[in-house]
């Protein structure tokens, strides 16, 4: 009797195509969508845990002025 996996024949090239498709779909998610998803996730964590994570991040960004935040803002507005 044949095993269930014997019917599944994937060549190495097929596997690479699948990985390329997955990677391409992830790259197609633009920076605005990623930012919104992260903010939603942080908002949910902020509601569940009584420590104001978003407020602390805002204070950090205002006081430290990290370069990653400027890069993120420029990328969001460049795509707009």
Which helices and strands appear, and what pairs or packs with what?
Blueprint: H1 12-28, H2 31-48, H3 53-64, H4 67-79
Short description:
Helices cover 75% and strands 0% of the residues. It is mainly α.
Descriptive report:
By secondary structure, the protein is mainly α. The chain has one domain (10-79). Helices cover 75% and strands 0% of the residues. The protein has four helices and no strands. It is flat and about 35 Å long. 0% of the residues are buried.
**What is the overall silhouette?**
flat
Number of domains: 1
Number of strands: 0
Helix content: over 70%
Radius of gyration: 21 Å
Uncertain spans: 1-12
So what's the oligomer here? single chain
Overall mean pLDDT: 74
Taken as a percent bin, the fraction of beta residues is under 5%
Computed structural class: mainly alpha
Number of helices: 4
Distance between the termini: 58 Å
Keyword list:
single chain, 80 residues, mainly alpha, 4 helices, 0% strand, flat, disordered N terminus
């Amino acid at each position: 009797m044949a095993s269930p996996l014997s019917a599944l024949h994937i060549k190495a090239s097929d596997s690479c195509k699948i990985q390329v498709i997955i990677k391409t779909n992830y790259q197609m998610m633009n920076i605005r969508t990623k930012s919104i998803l992260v903010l939603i996730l942080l908002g949910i964590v902020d509601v569940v845990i009584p420590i104001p994570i978003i407020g602390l991040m805002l204070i950090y960004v205002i006081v430290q002025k990290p370069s990653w935040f400027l890069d993120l803002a420029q990328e969001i507005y460049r795509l707009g």
